[in-house]
Amino acid sequence: MKKTTYIVSHEVKIERLDTFIPLKSGLSRSHVQKLIKQGLVIVNSRIEKVSYKVKNGDRIELTIPDEPESPLVPEDIPLDVIYEDEHIIIINKPPKMIVHPAAGHKSGTLINALIYRCGKLASIGAPLRPGIVHRLDKDTSGIIVIAKDDAAYLNLCKQFEERKVEKHYLALLYGTLKKDKEEINTPIGRAIADRKKMSTKTRKGKEAVTQFEVIKRFKSATMVKIKIITGRTHQIRVHFAASGHSVLGDKIYGKKTNIKFAQKTINFSRQMLHAQSLKFKHPIDGRPLEFTTPIPKDIETAIKELNEEST
C-alpha cells in the first residue's frame, strides 16, 4: 500500500474532498471517490464523505492499495515518436486510434503500443490509462505527451491544471466564418437530453474557453487555427457545433460528412481536427519544449479539394 499525506494550505479555494485529492494526486475523480467510500481517505483522523469541503489546515491521509497485475496487454503497434527520454514520450497519434482501453476497446490502443515500447509508464492514475495526462478523441489526430514516471506525471498534471501548457489545433469547419478571430467563452457540461454527449445547453456547465483565428476561407468551409485555454471533453467540437460551424466529418456533433458541389462531392471520413502543436516545460529539468506535427494526409487532401472547388 502507498500512503500520502496532504496539509491543506490557505491558498487552496474551498472545494470538495473528491476534487481536491485528484488535483494533488493525479488520480481520477471516480477512483478517489471509491477510495473515500472505502474509508481509505482520512481527514483529521476522521472518515468524511466525498462532498466534505476541505479547510485550511486539514490533514488528509490517502491510502492507495496495491494494484493487481496490470490487465494491459503489450502490443507491437508502430508509433510515430516525435520525442522520447527517460521521463516522457511525445507521440503523433494517427486518426482512428483510441488512447487507452475502455469498454469494447481492450486492444489496439495507444497505451497497448506504449506498454510494448516502453515497458512501464507512470503508475499513478486509473489502471487502464497509466501516464495519460491529457487525451485526444479517437478520430482526432496529432500530438500527445505521456509520462513515463510518477514525478513527470504529477508535474505535467500541475502544468495542465495551471493552464501553463499551450495547445494548438488545426480544424476544417463547415460554412464560412465571418470573424477573423474570436474567443468562445461558453460553459460546457453533459447534455440534458443525452448524457453521453457534451453540450453548451447543460444544467451544470464548466468554464470552457476556445480561441480561434481564420487561416483560410473556402467556398463552403473555413480552415482555422485553434488554441484551447481549458480542456473540457469534446470542447472544440461542441463549441463550433453550437456556433453553427461544426468540425467537418464530426459524426456526433456536426454530422456534416460531405460537401456537395455542382461537379463534385468532397467526403470526410473522420472529423477534420488535428492537434498540431504542444508547448510546455520539461517536467523534470524545466527546460521549455515545443513540438509541432505536420498536417495528416487526409486533411491535406481535403484542403486541396476545397481549394479546387473554391477557385
Task: Compile the SSE list and pairings.
Layout lengths: L1 E6 L9 H9 L3 H9 L3 E3 L2 E2 L11 E6 L16 E4 L3 E6 L16 H9 L22 E7 L2 H12 L4 E9 L6 E5 L3 E2 L7 E2 L9 E9 L3 E8 L6 H8 L15 E3 L4 E3 L5 E9 L6 E5 L4 H14 L1
Parallel strand pairs: 7-16
Antiparallel strand pairs: 1-4, 2-3, 2-4, 5-6, 6-7, 8-13, 8-16, 9-12, 10-11, 12-13, 14-15, 16-17
Helix pairs in contact: 1-2
Features:
single chain; 311 residues; alpha+beta; Structural Genomics Hypothetical 15.5 Kd Protein In mrcA-pckA Intergenic Region, Chain A; Pseudouridine synthase; 9-stranded mixed beta sheet; 6 helices; 17 strands
Protein described:
With 311 residues, this protein is an alpha+beta fold. The protein folds into three domains: 63 residues, RNA-binding S4 domain (Structural Genomics Hypothetical 15.5 Kd Protein In mrcA-pckA Intergenic Region, Chain A, Roll), CATH 3.10.290; 81 residues, Pseudouridine synthase; 145 residues, Pseudouridine synthase (2-Layer Sandwich). Helices cover 20% and strands 29% of the residues. It contains six helices and 17 strands. The strands form four sheets. Strands 5, 6, 7, 8, 9, 12, 13, 16 and 17 form a nine-stranded mixed β-sheet that branches. Strand 5 and strand 6 form a beta hairpin. Helix 1 packs across helix 2. The mean pLDDT is 92.
